[in-house]
Amino acid sequence: MLSEHTIGIIKSTVPVLEVHGVAITKRFYQMLFSNHPELLNVFNHINQKQGKQPTALANVVYAAAANIDQLEKIIPVVKQIAHKHRSLGITADQYPIVGKNLLAAIKDVLGDAATDDIIQAWAEAYGVIAQVFIDVEAEMYEAAENAEGGWRGFRSFVVTRKVQESDAITSFYLVPEDGKAISGFLPGQYVTVKANIPGQSYTHMRQYSLSDKPGLPYYRISVKREDDSEVKPGGIVSQYLHHQVSEGDVLDITAPAGGFTLNLEDARPVVLISGGVGLTPMISMLNTIVEQAPERKVSFIHAARNSRAHAMKQAVEELAKTNSNVTVQWCYSQPTEEDRLQQSFDKEGYITADWLKGIVPNKDAAYYFCGPIPFMRQVHQSLHGIGVPQADIHYEFFGPKGSLD
């Protein structure tokens, strides 16, 4: 337990963290990787370069400081991060390393303003916060390992099928190399792929949503190839999977993880909204509903540039034809001439509140969405615009948590 004195000091630093939080976390990662380069085998280098990871960490540190006297308020955030930590293999003995470098970064950025009292208070607070993460993650490791067909760490899976779904998205069907059972999962969860790529100095790990329903003898991930552009570098792992991994090759993956999951106990209608490769967890949810809750009405809404970029379209339309509880709507921002001639989409442009209002069954439904952050911001705003309560809105970021404000 923290003393009232320590809590008071931590609370007093909240305004400072609001201003300098990202500078502190950027400096933290610089120090961490300089002192412990082996951790570059764990962290996503692209997220570091784009500033996503430092910003996400700054938000967590700020939230922890603001709620230091009632840490139970941040447990939902802790669990979301803990799922990712478990899937990356983060261990309890790494937390002191993080703490040491975080305190050093605070001192380095704030200079004389970071008094001995402040550093001591943050050392104590970090110990308490870290223990919350360690305890939650220990339960997750145990649950993953003890589940039927479960395991700890990484397990080798063979790529039995590789299927091109669109111009940029390819599915990989994964079967355990040892021939034993695989653990179940909740629709919406993901696995981590560990890639040892020829020519790369470090191991690269990426999390990919499972894109089919649970209960099958394989896992399926559907990966978008991120090409190099003037705006940002391409995806090292996605390019490796698309260009170098073939059927028969072996990939090491973790047991499924993630807190963005379909609530199967909710019998109300469900609306699944996706943009681009954000459809992967939605396909898992859709396939699960069709099998396990065939009476539950589901509206599947997907946004893509055009039919060439639209993955799994035929499979979803087949489900809609054979299941009366399923309706589908397509929104294309840049339809081709062929798309227009074949009338292969329902709306041109982007998803808006007015359009959603006309196609969703009613406001009393569960809404799930995923996709690029600008897309998610628009959907979030649109759902609020038609009066959907925040409690019925569920979403997932691909990568570090961002803001939809």
UniProtKB/TrEMBL annotation:
The keyword rRNA processing does not apply. GO terms for molecular function: nitric oxide dioxygenase NAD(P)H activity. The record marks K84, E396 as: Influences the redox potential of the prosthetic heme and FAD groups. The active site is at Y95 (charge relay system), E137 (charge relay system). Its cofactor is heme b; FAD. The keyword Transport applies. Binds 1 heme b (iron(II)-protoporphyrin IX) group per subunit. Binds 1 FAD per subunit. It is an enzyme of class 1 (oxidoreductase). CDD domains: flavohem_like_fad_nad_binding, Yhb1-globin-like. FAD binds at Y190, R206, Q207, Y208, S209, F397, F398, G399, P400. It catalyses: 2 nitric oxide + NADPH + 2 O2 = 2 nitrate + NADP(+) + H(+); 2 nitric oxide + NADH + 2 O2 = 2 nitrate + NAD(+) + H(+). Residues 1-138 form the Globin domain. NADP(+) binds at G276, V277, G278, L279, T280, P281. Residues 149-405 are annotated as: Reductase. The record marks Y29 as: Involved in heme-bound ligand stabilization and O-O bond activation. Heme b binds at H85. Consists of two distinct domains; an N-terminal heme-containing oxygen-binding domain and a C-terminal reductase domain with binding sites for FAD and NAD(P)H. Is involved in NO detoxification in an aerobic process, termed nitric oxide dioxygenase (NOD) reaction that utilizes O(2) and NAD(P)H to convert NO to nitrate, which protects the bacterium from various noxious nitrogen compounds. Therefore, plays a central role in the inducible response to nitrosative stress. PANTHER family: FLAVOHEMOPROTEIN. In the C-terminal section; belongs to the flavoprotein pyridine nucleotide cytochrome reductase family. Belongs to the globin family. Two-domain flavohemoproteins subfamily. This is Flavohemoprotein.
